[in-house]
Amino acid sequence: MIFPCILSGGVGTRLWPLSRQDRPKQFLPLFNGRSLFQMTVDRVQGDAFARPIVIGNQNHRFLLGEQLQEMGVEADTILLEPIGRNTAAPAAMAAMIAEERDPEALVLLLPSDHMIKQVDVFQDAIRAAETAANEGQIVTFGINPSEPNTGYGYIRLAPSQTQVRPVEAFVEKPNRETAETFLAEGNYVWNAGIFLYSAKAMLAAFELHQPQMMTQLRAALATRSQDLDFTRIDEDMFAKVEDVSIDYAIMEKAENIACVPMAPQWDDLGSWSAIWSVLDKDERGNSGLGDSRFLNSENCLAYAGDGLVSVIGLSDVLVISTRDSVLVAHKDHAQDVKKIVEALNKEGRTETQFHPRSYKPWGYTERINAGDRFAVQSMMIKPGMKLSLQSHLHRAEHWVVVSGTLEITINDEVRLLTENQSAYVPLGARHTLHNPGRIPVRMIEVQSGTYLADDDIIRYEDQ
């Protein structure tokens, strides 16, 4: 049985301002309401695959759970990484988990932020690799290059007439001249970062080439504990594990490496220009997401997250507008967005970290306005969900129900609020919110006081 392992720990800084630390690119519903994470999960459904193993950042746990729930997919394991450790550690941990389920298990390790348009071609490649993986080969998947792209690593293949090709070398991202040489030679493919291997073979490779890491990973995985639908591991134990890629840790050292070249219309969508390349376009090559307009413009991308965006008289320009940030860039400089993010991080700006909308286990909050001694946010509470019983030392709150039925508790008083009704929560009062109905509750919360940060909270009971 093939156990898909979906890696979902990245941030995607080159897709700022839409991709941020609390909601990175793989979770953004940019493709007919679906995210790249959901599309990745979808392409490994069916009788050939076991339930997926998902490995992601612990700060994204509710995004992971919510997006799987939207699809009606139950994961085998949702393993939360307390800190990022690149791809080698997840590759080994996925092998350990899969081997617990089936000693002969195969693991399909794949990133959650790739676009693959021809899923049947991708699945054909997996079937072609399966025999080699069962025989102990660690199989990587290469993309037949369509251009001398300098943004990808390359794999040099040995001459062979077989579909599963021996690998001669892994090559770092080249310059333009070198990439053109690779394309002319014809025995190079892009490294897609997708792997198929038996759990047994990968664990043996770690024991041989990374014995210390293997010991540390076994110790970290031994600390597993369940938290709702999620599996947690001890942060201190996991922090001892080396931060290294699977390519460097294993693939460049092992001898049992093979590759299946494929052409499934793949893209890792690492920049806004890549997003533009896969979207539908008008007769002049413009793509619009949200409420956008184009006049005398060509080959542009406009994203209107909040309000209207109009592009006039421009070519090859990216305009990305969110509630709190706007990015305008030439497509040729799309890779430089990460430099802006790095500069903003050094300034301590929060626009790279947090979306105005913050997802919670019970729903979400969305910032509307804030100033000296006040903050206003909208809230959505899912049917049946309840917030923790809490109090605040420095702020009072006003609640106004916009739609739905809300059960509120303020100290010892419990009552229902419906549309257009409101309540006042004095400073220091114990309070909670509960949606007892079958439709989401939408409400406005106004906070006022001397200190409004999220850490001004005392929790007494929590679901």
UniProtKB/TrEMBL annotation:
One Pfam annotation reads ManC_GMP_beta-helix
Reactions this protein catalyses: alpha-D-mannose 1-phosphate + GTP + H(+) = GDP-alpha-D-mannose + diphosphate
Lineage top rank: taxon:
Bacteria
What are the record keywords, sorted?
Answer: GTP-binding, Isomerase, Nucleotide-binding, Nucleotidyltransferase, Transferase
MF annotations from Gene Ontology: GTP binding; isomerase activity; mannose-1-phosphate guanylyltransferase (GTP) activity
Domain named MannoseP isomerase/GMP-like beta-helix: residues:
295-344
Domain Nucleotidyl transferase positions: 5-283
Domain Mannose-6-phosphate isomerase type II C-terminal: where? 348-462
In short, the EC number is 2.7.7.13
Please give a single GO biological process term from the UniProt record.
polysaccharide biosynthetic process
**Family of this protein:** Belongs to the mannose-6-phosphate isomerase type 2 family.
Any idea what this protein is called?
mannose-1-phosphate guanylyltransferase
Q: Which organism is it from?
A: Roseibium hamelinense
Taxonomic classification:
Bacteria, Pseudomonadati, Pseudomonadota, Alphaproteobacteria, Hyphomicrobiales
